[in-house]
């Protein structure tokens, strides 16, 4: 075992137990004694990257506080002295030394190099030698303002500054003056810094820069303002074009409507009497051209999204998403795709970038940055929130592009209710949407509403496949279906057409993977804005607007304060490097470091320089999948897969927090490693998922054939034979594994060759899942045993926390508190929206 591995193991072994759901990260002073762990079986140690040394945790959850204003910037005149003060301790930290050794600095040269850097900080010459301007200092000021919130901020900041300083003439001279740091070491540091440098984002897209300046047309406004419609009309009128959006569901809808001729092109009008299509997911706005009749917007004359297709407006369009490609014409240059799939070497007449405010999203924002800077189009329509306008202008300042901003107003009023529901779900009415932020909470609320009011509820949450979410939205919108209330997560805020009269927040905070946090101002506004969609309600004056309120009285002031607060302009665009960039970084690292795929994440986090208005996407969530990939592919031969293979697997949409999906992904990697071929059957049979699908599918068919008694009015199973909620989780996991296979089938065609079988299985899972949602049991699992449903033949029982336990049907487990592993499992399940 290497020195690095031994040190890492000591770090993990000495780490306190993982925090529970409401325990934030805190600093602990050196004199504070760590509390002894609670009794119980030990948890599996967490794998930390060499750059993520854990900090001790306190046992108290800080009160949730609405962040109305951003943190106060750190005083710029104090930055040099503050950095010197923090570096005094930082340079002695063992994990800093270990990281620098991994990056190629010999161990005996680390201390003198860091000492030289610290002296330069004390002399306050570092920032001056690097020619930091006003924008750079403002960025440092904002980063240091967040230091108390993010314990790794100062570590990453000093590390990046160290490598940038070493690359400067002043830094090189100071390092040579130590007579301990060799020229070879300095050269290796400089090569790593230069390869990892991403401070000039504009130059990374030569195709976009080789054409004349683009015309950027921004369409900005709140939810339900119809801001996307003019952009889509321009796309329909162009000879070549592309739509890039955040969801497969939206990309599919644009693709379908363009091919059917349902979007009226710019410069053309629909026929007299053409019926507008109210059932669209585009921006949640009106399908009418409001400007055509400004004196009477409630009865506009010209629909721009019409229900029936018009051959005059039909445009051949291809669909490209991560897991689906529908090529109708190889020769056409018009496509609808998810934002990650945008090609950057093809020229388009018109391009549409949807939901531009996601450019600051810590996990996906880099794709919007790439699209904004790199789309090779004569005219780019950028749609989203007003908060993105200043940042977009700043990013495009040096591109020479012309920018026009069109602003839109909400087409129906929105207000905060005068009172909450007082915790009483019997006050839920038809047309309401209750928002909860965990899967378990959603089904709990759904069950209570149906039991207490008799109103049936549709559901929508992130783990559901987009096709099922869309179908649940259709059930809710159709007054004849009987599903008059929607219970969902924040997934309702994007990409769904919903006829919501009132949005009710069951909670105003959500678990972010580390701690419980209040929703942001933007999240409050986006979710609440789904109420009162224009054109979807009756024309009565009292029914034109939407209402937002809360379930509990104590949450209502928070909601009201959030809705009254202004949305602050975005300040950071996230950066996502191209896949080939990681290979370039690995080439300049020592051979020992290349064996660990996640070392690239370390470089991005602790070496890469970005511009003052950019920041890397969050790297912390990438360590676990990369470490798992390394473990799986190396466990047999020690050689494993190529760097390219590992990068493809790391980018695959694998839900690593789902135990079944992670298990299936591990098996898939092993098969790929050993056989270079993976079958659909092998990965979907994990944890009995395929058998589970067959059991529920059989029950579904028997209910349709009359072999099982069903409610003659609704066609649903009686309450005693409902599907247990845990079954939905398994079907969702199976669907995710199929999606992973399809995604890989477009990138490793020979190894994942059963695309047709995967598509058929995907369709079957969606059909069964849709039926199971209508027949799910809302009862809590029994403390003593399995769900009483002999038709399903389940081979698992559940404890009092709903955690599956192996056993025969009807087997009774002993009473007693749930194991700590069960509680950890429950928290992971609750975090899956």
UniProtKB/TrEMBL annotation:
Region annotation Disordered: where it falls in the sequence: 14-57, 798-833
EC code: 3.6.4.13
Catalytic activity, reaction form: ATP + H2O = ADP + phosphate + H(+)
PROSITE patterns reported for this sequence: HELICASE_CTER (PS51194)
Chief place of localization: mitochondrion
Listed Pfam families: DEXQc_Suv3 (PF22527), Helicase_C (PF00271), SUV3_C (PF12513)
Gene Ontology CC: one annotated term: mitochondrial degradosome
MF term (GO), any: hydrolase activity
Subcellular location: Mitochondrion
Annotated ranges, domain Helicase C-terminal: 391-583
InterPro entries, per database record: DEXQc_SUV3 (IPR055206), Helicase_C-like (IPR001650), P-loop_NTPase (IPR027417), RNA-DNA_Helicase (IPR050699), SUV3_C (IPR022192), Suv3_DEXQc (IPR044774)
Keywords carried by this UniProt record: ATP-binding, Helicase, Hydrolase, Mitochondrion, Nucleotide-binding, Transit peptide
Biased composition (Low complexity): 45-57
Segments of skewed composition (Basic and acidic residues): 818-833
UniProt protein name: RNA helicase
The organism of origin for this protein: Meripilus lineatus
